[in-house]
Write a structure and sequence with these properties.
- With 356 residues, this protein is an alpha+beta fold.
- It folds into two domains: 242 residues, Jelly Rolls; 88 residues, Jelly Rolls, CATH 2.60.120.10.
- Strands 1, 13, 14, 15, 16, 17, 18 and 19 form an eight-stranded antiparallel beta sheet that branches. A six-stranded antiparallel beta sheet has the order 2-3-10-5-8-12.
- A hairpin with a 2-residue loop joins strand 16 and strand 17.
């Protein structure tokens, strides 16, 4: 099996964006409500049968191709633990406007109330920004009472929500881990690579101005139960420091481009949920061990090759790589972002039991 190049896959959303995705890919922007490109996705939108699923070049859904041969696509160890799920969802996200304040359920909450072994921890790798103060919001700055949170949501008090969240200015190259349950929002002008657990579970705290009804932000659970998945504890500065990696992407330059490097992008706490690497071949070649992966070519051009095959890499292109492609190598003046599922032994560290 060989890597397959993937075209844009931008399901309709309720918020604006998409221009940065079009510029990155070198394509036309379909419309202003296509702010997310679901790359190598075997996950459909919440409540939908196929929206969000990636198609392979021959028209087959990636989900169906994996289901037909999970060991070749995902590897025997992964398939034995996760079955036919890649255990990963990757997106390009362009916030053409500030996203509403929201949160995602944990694995234990999702297992109890949504019948899923996966919650939705996620991470952002900032690829570009625009505007005077590109920012993200992450976690409460103080403890919040249950009645207080319920009142903010009932009254749609956006000002109270935003003023009580940590506001972090971000720049290209920064990486942020967002643990499940943590309230958050992405600010206008932030273009990022987003890695997630493979679900579309979102509990919306902020609805006003986004054309959302209360039922759209409750996952069919009702408001009180849905809100119970939201952490109300303050996120300390020490925790923020552990969740944020400044300049995780290496800058271009002679001192950084000479030697081949494969380095971790995300904070260590991401490992039970997903992994991400930045691959820089330098003047030689970077070698990658076999794994299912989603590749995003961030800058430059180069070549990805394995035993008996070779494919060109160009900035803005995205690829899905089956485990069966074997050991691969990269050469050229290129910066490649490699998104990977968790290793089974690390995923088990946060695996809930049905009684939890």
């Amino acid at each position: 099996m060989q890597p397959l190049e993937l075209g844009p896959n931008q399901p309709k959303q309720f918020y604006r964006g998409g221009a940065a995705i079009a510029a990155f890919r070198g394509t036309a922007n379909p419309d202003e409500f296509r702010p997310e490109d679901w790359v190598g996705s075997a996950t459909s939108r919440f409540g939908a049968e196929e929206a969000g699923l990636s198609q392979l070049p021959d028209g087959t859904l990636l989900r169906d191709a994996i289901a037909a041969n999970p060991e070749r696509w995902l590897g025997p160890e992964h398939a034995a633990y996760f079955g036919a799920s890649p255990a990963l969802l990757v997106k390009l996200l362009d916030a053409g406007e500030r996203l509403p304040v929201h949160a995602h359920p944990s694995r234990s909450f999702a297992l109890r109330h949504l019948g899923s072994r996966h919650g939705k921890t996620e991470a952002w790798v900032v690829l570009g920004t625009s505007g005077a103060e590109p920012s993200v919001y992450l976690g409460w700055a103080r403890d919040v009472e249950a009645s207080e949170l319920s009142r903010w949501v009932a009254q749609q008090d956006s000002r109270a929500m935003l003023s009580n969240l940590h506001k972090l200015q971000v720049a290209p190259g920064d990486a942020v881990l967002v643990p499940a349950g943590t309230p958050h929002a992405i600010g206008e002008g932030v273009f990022c690579l987003e890695l997630q657990e493979p679900t579309d579970f979102s509990v919306m705290l902020e609805l006003a101005g986004f054309g959302l009804s209360p039922s759209e932000g409750e996952l069919g659970l009702g408001r009180d139960l849905a809100l119970s998945c939201v952490s109300r504890r303050a996120l300390s500065q020490d925790c923020l420091d552990e969740l944020l990696r400044r300049k995780a992407l290496p800058q271009r330059g002679p001192e950084n481009d000479a030697r081949a490097r494969v380095t971790d992008l995300l904070p260590a706490a991401a490992a039970p949920y997903f992994r991400a690497e930045v691959v820089v071949p330098g003047s030689g070649e970077a070698t990658l061990r076999p794994s299912f992966s989603v590749l995003v070519v961030n800058t430059g051009a180069g070549v990805l090759f394995g035993e008996g095959w070779e494919v060109p890499l160009r900035a803005g292109a995205t690829w899905v790589v089956p485990w069966d492609a074997g050991e691969t190598s990269v050469r050229g003046e290129v910066q490649l972002l490699r998104c990977l599922p968790p290793l089974p032994d690390r995923a088990a560290q946060d695996e809930p039991s049905p009684a939890s």
